[in-house]
Design a protein that fits this description.
Layout (H helix, E strand, L loop, with lengths): L1 E7 L2 E6 L9 E11 L1 H8 L8 E2 L3 E9 L11 E4 L2 E2 L5 H4 L10 E2 L11 E5 L3 E3 L6 H4 L2 H14 L6 E5 L3 H12 L4 E5 L3 H9 L4 E3 L6 H8 L4 E6 L4 H10 E9 L13 H6 L3 E4 L7 H9 L9 E5 L4 H7 L7 E5 L2
Parallel strand pairs: 11-12, 11-14, 12-13, 14-15, 15-16, 17-18
Antiparallel strand pairs: 1-2, 1-4, 3-5, 3-9, 3-18, 5-6, 6-10, 7-8
């Protein structure tokens, strides 16, 4: 089969590999669509730790073409997506109900072979049916949407809240829709790129800010004088992360959601965080949210049809990474068909 394999930072090759074989508790999936995300870009740049070599990619959907002897709930021909994170079920975190923080986590495209390929295998326990109506391209958003759902769960967004989202790429637009569905009254999106600001307005933002032309804190406080109830930093931008406590109200919540380079640090004022009793949280992967993501996509509660800006074949995967983050991009999608 054809696959995009990362051997080291800046060394990714589209090449022929042997087709994987499913174990007794696994299924073999013919991949139809796989999204390109910030983690893939960070892997390319060496900003995110990985086990090399590995087939890159983890946001995908496809069709089951073979099932292991112990698989009970799926059959060949089923249209599916997956939670791409394998866990051990034995460590402290797994046994405490926080499997996404597993000490022995193996994530597709990072630690084990992923989905920018014609085929992949996955444990039956990680597979989710997508039905007959959801397109493969839309279903490939299940993994990033599951992460956005988990982040909004952590933030405990309430009806009537004012929420600031920093960054309006694919993830920022998914987060915008999550907090809209949770009943946020004001959804403020700060984004440098006009095209992405426009897309955020399409997807439920009530206000947008161009941070190159306006002071974000001043604009937020024009809308809610005490500051935002919840601030999501989705871009992985160090300067924006450092400023987040300034944007949040007393007693507010800050969620660092974006993928940051592992060696980056920021400075914040702990006195002010303490004095204002703010919560600063990290949001990592998803915690049993994949099924919910499929439901939100299937029912149209979250739309993604307007987010794919560029589509590539698997042979063009390196071209996709080359333009990742460009001003005219939002979500990049690799289609195996």
């Amino acid at each position: 089969m054809k696959a995009a394999v990362i051997y080291a930072p800046f060394d990714i090759r589209v090449e022929e590999k042997d087709n994987p074989k499913p174990k007794s508790d696994e299924v073999l999936i013919k991949i139809h669509a796989c999204g390109v995300c910030g983690t893939d870009d960070a892997l390319k740049k060496g900003e995110y730790p990985a086990n090399y070599p590995a087939i890159i990619g983890h946001e995908f959907s496809g069709e089951i073409v073979e099932v292991g002897s112990e698989v009970k709930n799926f059959k060949t021909g089923d249209r599916v997506t997956v939670d791409p994170n394998r866990v051990c079920h034995k460590c402290f975190f797994c046994r405490s109900g926080q499997e996404h923080l597993c000490d022995n986590l193996s994530s597709m495209g990072v630690h084990i072979d992923g989905a920018d390929a014609e085929y992949c295998v996955m444990l039956e326990s990680n597979v989710y049916g997508i039905g007959d109506k959801l397109s493969y391209e839309d279903a490939a958003f299940a993994e990033p949407l599951a992460c956005a759902i988990h982040g909004s769960d952590l933030a405990n967004v309430k009806i009537g809240d004012t929420v600031l989202i920093i960054g309006a790429g694919g993830m920022g637009n998914l987060m915008t829709q999550c907090v809209k569905n949770l009943g946020a009254a004001n959804i403020i999106v700060s984004e440098l790129i006009e095209k992405r600001r426009e897309k955020a307005l399409e997807n439920g933002a009530t206000h947008v800010i161009d941070p190159s032309k306006s002071d974000v804190n001043e604009e937020v406080r024009k809308i809610k004088s005490v500051g935002a109830d919840v601030v999501f930093e989705v871009a992985g931008n160090s300067k924006a992360q450092a400023a987040c406590p300034t944007y949040a109200r007393k007693g507010g919540t800050i969620v660092y959601f974006g993928c940051s380079p592992q060696d980056n640090t920021i400075e914040i004022n702990p006195f002010m965080v303490n004095e204002n009793e703010q919560r600063i949280l990290g949001s990592f992967n998803n915690q049993f949210a994949t099924g919910r993501a499929v439901e939100m996509l299937s029912t149209g509660k979250v739309r993604v049809d307007n987010l794919v800006s560029h589509t590539f074949s698997l042979d063009e995967y390196l071209e996709a990474l080359e333009i990742f983050g460009n001003p005219d991009t939002i979500k990049l999608m690799v289609k195996m068909d």
